[in-house]
Design a protein that fits this description.
By secondary structure, the chain is α+β, with helices and mostly antiparallel strands. The chain contains 2 helices and 5 strands, in the order αβββββα.
Amino acid sequence: MFSRLAAQYRSVVQDLVMSLHALASSLQKQEIVATCYSCDEGDGRDGNTASFVAELGDQHLVRFLVSDFGISWVESRNGRELVKFEGAEAIQELQRIASSIQERSATGSTPEIASR
């Protein structure tokens, strides 16, 4: 049972890494500074760790980290941490940003992504 759960979690991490790269590309197309780096954790499995960072304007940054060790979301403004989520809550924040991008693309508008 635990081996199956570990494999499912690794699959979720891989899906998140691919989604983060796509999100960074979407943001860049909308002229929002965003990067996503992924790396091998040294055990032969590619792409199991990623760091996504986006600047949402007015020194407002979001950082989403995902790895086999955990998932976290940190939002900051002017270098001060505003909020930090882990696990499912972090993924929900990622969805909030992705939904905002989809809405902006559909309407053709370019307002800043709403902060929490």
